[in-house]
From TrEMBL:
The active site is at E292 (proton donor), D371 (proton acceptor), E399 (proton acceptor). This is Xylan alpha-1,2-glucuronidase. Homodimer. Residues 132-459 form the Glycosyl hydrolase family 67 catalytic domain. One of its GO terms (biological process) is xylan catabolic process. It comes from Aquibacillus koreensis. The keyword Hydrolase applies. It comes from the Bacteria.
Amino acid sequence: AEKGYKAWLQYNEITDESLKAEYSSYFASLSVTEDSPILNAAVEELTLAANAMLGKDMTIYNYFTDDATIILGTYQTIDVEEYGLSADEVKNLNDEGYVIKSVNQADTKKLVLVGKTDKGVLYAAFQLLRFMQTSNSIDGLHHVEQPKNQFRMMNQWDNMDGSIERGYSGNSIFYDENGFTGDLTRIKDYARLLSSVGINAISINNVNVWEVETNLITSKFLPEVQQIADIFRAYGVQTFLSINFASPIQIGGLATADPLDAGVQKWWAEKVEEIYKYIPDFGGFVVKADSEHRPGPFFYDRDHADGANMLAEALAPFNGVVFWRCFVYNCLQDWRDRSTDRARAAFDHFKPLDGKFLDNVVLQIKNGPMDFQVREPISPLIGSMEKTNQVMEFQVAQEYTGQQKDLCFLVPQWKEYLKFDTHAKGEGTTVDSIVNGSVYDFKYSGITAVSNIGNDANWTGNTLAQANLFGYGRLIWNPDATSEDIADDWVRLTFGDDKNVVETVKGMLLDSWHIYENYNAPLGVGWMINQHHHYGPNIDGYEYDVWGTYHFSDRDGMGVDRTMETGTGYTEQYFSPNKEIYNSLETCPDELLLFFHHVPYTYELKSGKTVIQHIYDTHFLGFEQVEGLITRWNSLEGKMDDYRFNNVKERLHMQLKNAREWRDQINTYFYRKSGVPDAKNRTIY
Ligand code: GCU
């Protein structure tokens, strides 16, 4: 289990003699003249790795000496020109950027790790170790990097009773029995994992803030929140809390939480001041308000800007930020009501408020208009508000994509979202250029995501789901990185360099999203899942319910008409030409057809197949592909430790059962509805 726990920070002994000699010559001693928790963390990581990988005990000098082989620090203290770097090269980087350079001075080899700030140094250390763990020579290295997104955040959905909302990897590492676990070592190791892939912010409790958690912002719990924040700070990760909008009532003894009430405003101002006494660099609040029965400004006839601004004003003196979630929709819809469309909700609620939010409010928008389905179009709200800070929200937890039983490597999906052209400011206004703040010059921007870890020995339930956590961090650091490179790195770091293992696991990861999509709800229509827990098929599970997630299948056809002429008009929310592309049957891409259109089963897709035949074919195929995953994985027996091998094997068998159920229920359901037989005459029940 230890190998599962170490995830991609294995620091395996280097067995290649020449590489070992090369690395060892650099890892004799280290000089660092600055003192900060972050720099200490960098030194600690390098020391640990040198020990494990090379059996070297580095001498650490806290003064400058020419004897040192590794020179580490910020550009203010290192004489970078001495090592053939220009001062500008580092100075012009953003605050988290760094340079790693190896030099050969008078026959001694030296490595310089220089950051714009101490955070850059830490990221440099992790990158250097990645080079070594993936067997790259570091002679002649000159590596310059800086992150492309400002906020690279993680949202824990952990509750204080120890459970995790949508958690598939055991219980919380933070909380237990309405208190803290006190397992600071585990939290530190989580901080290391996050920091190693560049995550720089975390909210440590569920967006649904229940009774006990409401007290996290009180003196009852703040000392322990402070301890956690201290740990994360040393890894360059800023701590946030999710708050309950009704806190002034629940813990403040006030009669109202009305954002325009002076008493409420004063209460929050004092509350925020108190929090900053414990955590001077506290990040701010994440807020789920007026969403799925959570309290919010609507209750007082105020709007979201009133609510968010009230909190923003309290946080502003301390440079704190409010992440205000846009997951706001009618979750008590009458299924008979065909005019309400959940997909429209975020845009309809927030777009009219553009310009009304203070500049330390950030709108947090889910990647799609619904809820992290295997396939959705991009949320049309992204890029539509020129005057309002935005971050995009992903879900690393696989709520609707197999729950870390089924394999689903999400980096290729996220990559498609990031590279989607919104046309907000003409051609080339990709999502990544909006969320990195460059299109509208947002003060705050970036990406956030729901975490997928818990206290399982391997953090993520399925060991291969570690790749999503790793990939999330690496991709949002640099959205231009390819899915292939990210997967390749992850496999090498996690399982080592064996060519067979690398190619097999990489292939499995890269195929897995499409495989999952093949046996799931077809052509972008989404849902069709069991209620509440959201695993496994239940085609009409939500069809006559209140959640606004319908597929409208009848004997003739299926899909949701979201066109401007005959449907809900949702397509109107996109910029041209996307609005026309999605609105028209002729141009709507196959994979999203049923998200935007209601069509007959016999409708012919661009692929040349009918919708019904596509359903049959993909569902038979998806199941076979899962059988294929099992064969591929089994070929690796003996090539890794039993713990990780068996862990994945076991999950793949659960996936096979799931895929079989999806295949047979979907095929049977649509065969019975349509009466159209499978052209290939396979077994349908
Ligand atoms: C989904 C999920 C909920 C979660 C919600 C949210 O609907 O099923 O558990 O609370 O998203 O993002 O707020």
